[in-house]
Amino acid sequence: MTRAFKVLSFQAATLLACGIMMSTIAAMTKAAPAPAAAAVSIGNFTFKAPVVTVKPGATVTWTNGDDIPHTVVSKDGLFKSKVLDTGDKFSFTFAKPGQFGYFCSLHPHMTGTVVVKA
Amino acid sequence: MFDGDDTGRRDFLKCMAWAGTGALFAVSGGVSTSMGLEAAIAAPLKRTGATTPFTFVQLSDSHIGFNKPPNADARATFREAIAKVKALPQQPDFIIHTGDVSQLSRDVEFDDADQMLKATGLPVFFVPGEHDMLDPDGGKAFLNRFGKGSKGAGWYSFDHRGVHFVALVNVADLKPGGMGNLGADQLKWLKADLAGRPSSTPIVVFAHIPLWTVYAEWGWGTDDAAEALKLLARFGSVTVLNGHIHQITQKVEGRIAFHTARSTAFPQPAPGTAPSPGPLKVPPDQLRSMLGITDAMFVRGHDRIALIDSTLTA
Fold this sequence. Notes:
Chain A is an alpha/beta fold. Chain A has one helix at about 5-30, and strands spanning about 35-45, 45, 50-55, 60-65, 75, 90-95, 100-105, 110-115.
């Protein structure tokens, strides 16, 4: 094998590797990876984003925009906010994958879900 | 009690209720009749049986601490409501408060309400609303002050001049996706409380959230209310008094009359007329015509309980 061919084949391999990497990145972009943080506003007695999807380790922040206090309480006891008066915020970081349903313990018809996946 | 054209009076009642002026609601044999507030006050109370007529007042949803539109000072309007009670021609034997005493269950809110009510010199019986359950211990602050001697989350009963009063709590341990909730423990207690009482005993039940479904989309009802109503069905006269929705609604089902009172703090929209419940932002000059008190008259052996709703302007 000549030296020139070796360089060429190395370059080809590098190009191929780059191509694979780029297509992988493209595929990942198409799949819209779960974000590392999310915000859920509360208004008109509803969680404005009833389902949010985030990746493990992401923090979700709820903000109460109503004139009436609300709470954010998980159905399985994982998290529970204090009472949120107008403008108050509550954040929780989701370490593990899963589906986490929650509701307002004052107005239990208000419900939402956080989906955590890699 | 009140003779006349029932249909005409019912229409008048609806009209008056929604116009926010005082009207007297009397229930006779399952048919609602009504007459104007002034005439009702002027009408003599016929005394029959051994029990003397008496009145009590319902206050509701004082939301002490609320300070946003349409009411910058819910303390001031509560004080006006109490002044209205003191000005009643016949002083009530006691007051019931059907919950949401406070806005955020803060000690200062409970204390201010307590002091204002104590100034009446009248006994006051409370049930909590969901706004009274917001302390870190989920209602203990309310119970320590207003629920001494009560059971569970704050339920109890008492007798007054031959009438059995039952205070129920439907704002504790609410379930995701649900409405108000009484729970198995309370229903078991209610069954035992009513057992052995003659069906002729007049019953008054009071709780914060309506014990019938006013509007499910806004959670304005109680999931297991039917269980309680089943236990009450055998009694000849049952009156259910609620708050929570900050407006007058009423219904008669069999021998049970349901009624919700106005708030003393702020009105809420009629069911389905807004994107959500919450404070109805009315102009300042209209606010007091949408707040008020309910005066309940009981005449033994004469008729059902008669309820006079009057506003802070009336």
